[in-house]
Amino acid sequence: MKTLVLVFLMPLSLASQDNQVKWFDIHAQATTITQAHGPFNAPYSGKNSLRPFTETDTSVTTTLSLRLTHQNTELGFDGEVAGGNGFSGVAGIAAFPNGEITKIGKPAPTPYVARLFLKQQVSHFTWIAGKMSAEDFFDNNAYSHEPRTQFMNWSIMYNGAWDYPADTRGYTVGALLEFAFGPFRLRAGSFLEPVWANGPKLDGHFAASRGDVWEWQYQYAKGGVVRVMRFMNHGNMGTYRRADQDIVVTRKPGTAKYGFGLNVEQRITGDVGVFGRLGWNDGKTESWAFTEIDRTASSGLSLRGSRWHRQDDVFGAAVAVNGISGDHRAYLARGGYGFMIGDGMLARPDPEELFEAYYAWRVQKVVTISADYQRIVNPAYNQDRGPITVFSLRLHVEH
Questions:
Q1: CB-side neighbour CA atoms (13 Å) of 392
Q2: What Å distances lie between residue 142 and 64, 151, 260, 324, 367, CA to CA?
Q3: In terms of residue numbers, what domain contains 280?
Q4: pLDDT in tens, 291-340
Q5: For residue 9, which of 25, 33, 26, 28 has the smallest C-alpha distance?
Q6: Tens-place pLDDT, residues 57-89
């Protein structure tokens, strides 16, 4: 594992110029996150509960990126190696505290192709097709979208209620089209869903298993952007209301889930920015690809360190409140399990609430070390468990 990390930590940045036109780029990054939580109150536990004793886990991801460009056409390739563990096998918290753990399908370091896509721009239109992450192009935010350098919690870095189409590692195959005119952007895409909930294999039956997403973006002021998203997912999903304790037996191909998202960012000064997200999905069918959140609201700020003469450092703080639908709540109360939460019962349900703060120290041009604190109340929507305090240390190298 150390050998793999060292290989990808080697500084790489190559460019060839022909008449001052750059036609290829190679970049590399490596990120390791170590997290720990202590013991907490837990009168009972189920098979998907967070373990109520001290846990310390580490994740590692390394990426080699290649971009080839010719005029208005770009070919992109990302190869990754990822390994490590998340708390309790990545279970017990809907708003999981490690955003990089979505890239890890196996504890042992494993190489895989993360992205392989073709992109072309023609006038005001841009189209992209291939393997990618739907989150590369939708629900972006300048202050909270990159767990390698910004917020780590799933429901702060992304819109937690968007069950975005992806395999276990967060990638999918699909296509999207973007139309730009003035301060407006319109984009639409369709992407493959996994064969089963949070599974590693994508379902090639596009008509019955896909995620469609539309987003309208408007830059309403200098440093201010609003994005409105609608999504519709189709897959072999089960239905909470029809399930007793095992939702798998209710799965039916072509089952639909829909929802909406709102994403706002605003630069206040050159060093200060704020952001917020709202998300909702119908919550009738099981969570399928991202996490078990049906409603979400988050807000936060980002502050650069110019005032204390550390202009490349960043401090961030944010809060989030997440909920589930009545059908989802009743299913968990009957002792049902999703793919990442389920305590065997849910006698006292309540929204999952959290606070996160981080400080990113830019040690050198290519090295950033971050300290992160998270406080999570009512993990898995259960008042009988928690609260949980999570401390994290993150090392990020990029060149």
A1: 35
A2: 23, 11, 20, 27, 20
A3: 2-398
A4: 999 999 999 999 999 999 999 999 999 999 999 999 999 999 999 999 99
A5: 28
A6: 999 999 999 999 999 999 999 999 999 999 999
Maximum Cα–Cα distance for the chain, whole Å? Answer: 69
Domain harbouring 169, CATH code: 2.40.160.10
Task: State how many domains the chain has.
Answer: 1
Confidence of residue 94 (pLDDT cuts 50, 70, 90): very high
Q: Which of 177, 275, 190, 260 is nearest to 225 (CA)?
A: 275
Cα 228 from chain centroid (whole Å): 18
Q: Percent of the chain scored above 70 by pLDDT?
A: 95
Quote the CA–CA distance of 51 and 92 in Å, as a whole number: 8
Question: How many whole angstroms separate alpha carbon 346 and alpha carbon 349?
Answer: 6
- Upper half-sphere CA count for residue 284 (Cβ side, 13 Å): 9
Residues in Cβ contact with 89 at an 8 Å cutoff, skipping those fewer than 6 apart: none
Per-residue confidence band for 171, with pLDDT thresholds at 50, 70 and 90: very high
CA distance 251 to 199: 15
Strand partners, 272: 303
pLDDT number for residue 283: 96
CB 5 within 8 A of CB 29: no
Count of CB atoms within 10 A of residue 16's CB? 9
Q: Output the CA–CA distances (angstroms, integers) from residue 225 to 36, 185, 234, in the order listed.
A: 35, 11, 29
Decide the pairing of beta strands 224-237 and 252-267. antiparallel
- Residues 72, 182: Cα–Cα separation, whole Å: 19
Residue corresponding to tokens 């730009």? 180
Dig out the tokens for 361 from the structure: 């120290």
242: phi then psi, degrees, rounded to nearest 5: -85, -10
State how far the Cα of 305 lies from the Cα of 316, in Å rounded to an integer. 11
Residue 281 carries which DSSP code? E
**Over 50: is that where the pLDDT of 218 sits?**
yes
Token digits of residue 192:
């493959």
Q: Which amino acid is at 76?
A: G
Cα separation of the two ends of the chain: 20
